[in-house]
Write a structure and sequence with these properties.
The structure holds 2 protein chains of 2 kinds.
Chain A (H helix, E strand, L loop, with lengths): L3 E4 L3 H14 L2 E7 L6 H5 L2 E6 L10 H10 L4 E3 L9 H9 L3 E2 L4 H8 L1 H10 L15 H11 L3 E5 L9 E3 L2 H19 L4 E5 L5 E9 L5 E13 L2 E7 L6 H17 L4 E9 L5 E7 L6 H8 L3 H9 L16 E8 L11 E2 L2 E3 L6 E5 L6 E2 L6 E9 L2 H14 L1 E3 L5 H9 L1 H5 L6 H8 L17
Helix pairs in contact in A: 4-5, 7-8, 12-13
Chain B lengths: L2 H14 L3 E6 L2 E7 L15 E5 L4 H10 L17 H9 L3 E5 L4 E4 L15 E2 L4 E7 L2 E6 L4 E6 L6 E2 L4 E7 L2 H6 L1
Antiparallel strand pairs in B: 1-2, 2-3, 4-11, 5-7, 5-10, 6-9, 7-8, 9-11
Classes of the chains: A alpha+beta, B alpha+beta.
Chain lengths: ~475, ~180
Amino acid sequence: MFKKVLIANRGEIATRIIWACRELGVRTVAVHSEADRDSLHVRFADESICIGPPPSAKSYLNIPAVISAAEITNVDAIHPGYGFLAENAYFAEVCEACNIKFIGPNSATIQLMGDKAEARVAMKAAGIPITPGFEGVIEDEEEAARVAASIGYPVIIKATAGGGGRGMRIVHDRAALLAALPAAQQEAQLAFSNPAVYIEKYIETARHIEIQILGDQHGNLIHLGERECSIQRRHQKLIEESPSPALTPEIRRKMGELAVHACREIGYVNAGTMEFLLDQDNNFYFMEMNTRIQVEHPVTEFVTNTDLVREQILIAAGERLEFDQDDIVFGGHAIECRINAESPITHIPSPGLITAMNLPGGPGVRVDTAAYPGWVVPPHYDSLIAKLIVHHRTRDMAIARMQRALEAYIVEGIETSVALHQRILAEPDFVAGNLSTRFMERFRKTHADDKAEPQQAAQGAGE
Amino acid sequence: MNLKEIKDLIELVNDKGFAEFEIERQGFRLRISRFKESGPQTMQPAPAPIIISSAIPGAPEVLSKAAQQGLIEAQVSSSGLGVASDSERIVAAAQPELHIIKSPIVGTFYSAPSPDSEPFVRVGDSIEQDSVVCIIEAMKLMNEIQAEVSGEVARIYIENGQPVEYGQSLFGIRLVSKEREAGD
């Protein structure tokens, strides 16, 4: 087992990794930018090192600074969290060269699955259904138009090097395609330093279903069921849940087995998530694979009674998975809300000083956060300040539990997306489980005239 | 001011979360600063320690009491040593006329080009903008750090071989400028 681990990240995931390390008796090193000196993860880590000024490029993405910090603190391993360097194959390679264990798959796997076009090719070869599309990078306009015509409109242009909605364009005809192509390429260049794009069939009404995978260094691979993440705004997830209201045990088994098979083909090690689109006829298509721990991992942890970050560390340390597929039992229903520091109406980020905070508790409630009263939410990073996750026996009970937890989730001094989550959970389509990636689009149209109402917390003299 | 009053002030600074507190009275000056740089050997664990610098006799006893509460022990070192303790570092940082050269990278500080060489600079040396003042080693690469100012080396805050983080104070330089010379 490692003696010391460096966490190359910040915010809630950094604290999450510290908790797992603590429980394993592993010492922790936090690296931070100057803007994060008073961060929760810095306070709880055993050691901390400032690695740069606030901008991510000069701090959290600064590979020499992170590696140098790892060397002077003599760590055995680095946990990259999610985002930042988590899917940077070069960073994983540098760790390997410096004899520091990168907690995740090896650099070759990250490289393969990180190239979205390459990943599609590899998955197709492994027998995974993929969205009808072009296997390869689009070279020019003519090729784009030809490919799109053969797939059939509507199609989606996607950046081969990234995700999160950037470099993505949905187009319904040739004219729109030719107009959108250079814009998508430019966006991709800016966001991922790589303008390469590919084209897929766009499935109008689909659900985003992802399968959680764990694999150890001894060839054991299991899946831990699915998460449905269809509630997205501009391709950023807002609410996730498990199990998916749409999946039957049969589909779950099929998707899980295929995902495990594909991972075996590519020699996948550590935690990973395979993302699929499920169309209205219950056909599923591979979209991409994330070779890291995901933001919404707590949802799976609740339903399967596991600690995925702990498993990541154990796997990286060479331990065998202590469960096999039959040991994974799914119980109850879990929902997660991503609480962002932003206006619930305009989504404009709301950094600043948190003057007061109350977190919900009680049975089946979990909060993963790095926020605390007195903390200044810095403007330099993404706006996620907390994850609120609930678990209960049925989906309806979980929704009710989430509603009462959201009511009690109070943050003062900044705006948060809590009111938005409350409204989404009250939406008839959500309650009925009628989800798709177009949910938020319809929701916005329905709620175009909403004001930012304060959440209905217990008023005044309640007992 | 007696030792009890100093202790009370320490608690006040701690409880109220003050960044700095300074009092001058009857010929002495007490400055209490909340300070988060690392010590000579190890990286400091959270929470931020409080450094106290003072010219009050008996202060070291109070300060070591404070150390028992998890605060750092600060001693006012006698001048001429050149290698400052934490308190000297704070005093120096609070003195506006000293320009602080801070580490631009994470790594290990070396005061000389090689283990058997003379150090790049000593306290009292004059330096120019392109003078190399130290080496910081990061990932097996030796990075020469230039002064980027001219003046006189007044303080050295780091020991040879000590790990440093981004922004850590390395040297205090008394700047040389035309205005100062004219005004003296």
